[in-house]
Design a protein that fits this description.
The complex is a heterodimer of chains A (113) and B (116). With 113 residues, chain A is mostly beta strands. Chain A contains no helices and 11 strands. Chain A is globular, with a radius of gyration of 13 Å. Chain B is globular. Classes of the chains: A mainly beta (113), B mainly beta (116).
Chain lengths: 113, 116
């Protein structure tokens, strides 16, 4: 089945630690995205990538980093510089053009202890 | 700048009632795309519909229907004969075709609760 997988579903980390969230897609999509969702709020774009080895900052990129070495994978690292990292993180992918709908993974809920 | 406004934060209705979720958007692009997504309690966003700015025809899919009106910059979503399984957060979203083609702007969402 084609789709997007994110792992782990729940993640706990201590303050001061970096943590990497995984996102893999087998839809052959060129574009991939990372969003952050806080309780009762909408989605905010962290980073996006339209093609391998290229990515752009979204609206709230500070404290996060990404890489896009393979078309299928777009991991997100939450660094210790992120002041308030506890949130629900959603990964999405779409055909390259922005007007195409995005398909989402199941999300990772990150809690900083 | 692009913006999507979902003024209804929460809506609660009794099962079998009809309910309309409002969406108002702002964009300077002449070509753009509008979307609706559903986020059930599991968290994963589910794509419902995409509409381009040149097509103002209303669309119906089973109990779901969408009313797109460029004159009022609105793209409202109606659920007919609501069911408990419709309970979710619904997001309206906007994408430009050119200058902002890479990003989809999401509204803040409307939490819909259907009571049995």
């Amino acid at each position: 089945d084609g789709g997007i997988t994110q792992s782990p579903k729940y993640l706990f980390r201590k303050e001061g630690q970096n943590v990497t969230l995984s996102c893999e897609q087998n839809l052959n999509h060129d574009a991939m995205y990372w969003y952050r969702q806080d309780p009762g709020q909408g989605l905010r774009l962290i980073y996006y990538s339209q093609i391998v080895n290229d990515f752009q900052k979204g609206d709230i990129a500070e404290g996060y980093s990404v890489s896009r070495e393979k078309k299928e994978s777009f991991p997100l690292t939450v660094t210790s510089a992120q002041k308030n990292p506890t949130a629900f993180y959603l990964c999405a992918s779409s055909q390259r053009s922005g007007y195409n709908e995005q398909f989402f993974g199941p999300g990772t809920r990150l809690t900083v202890l | 700048a692009q913006k999507v406004t979902q003024a209804q934060t929460e809506i609660s209705v009794v099962e079998k009632e009809d309910v309309t979720l409002d969406c108002v958007y702002e964009t300077r692009d002449t070509t753009y795309y509008l979307f609706w997504y559903k986020q059930p309690p599991s968290g994963e966003l589910v794509f419902l519909i995409r509409r381009n700015s040149f097509d103002e025809q209303n669309e119906i899919s089973g109990r779901y229907s969408w009313n797109f009106q460029k004159s009022t910059s609105s793209f409202n979503f109606t659920i007919t004969a609501s069911q408990v399984v419709d309970s979710a957060v619904y997001f309206c979203a906007l994408s430009g075709a050119y200058s902002s083609a890479s990003k989809i702007i999401f509204g803040s969402g409307t939490r819909l609760s259907i009571r049995p």
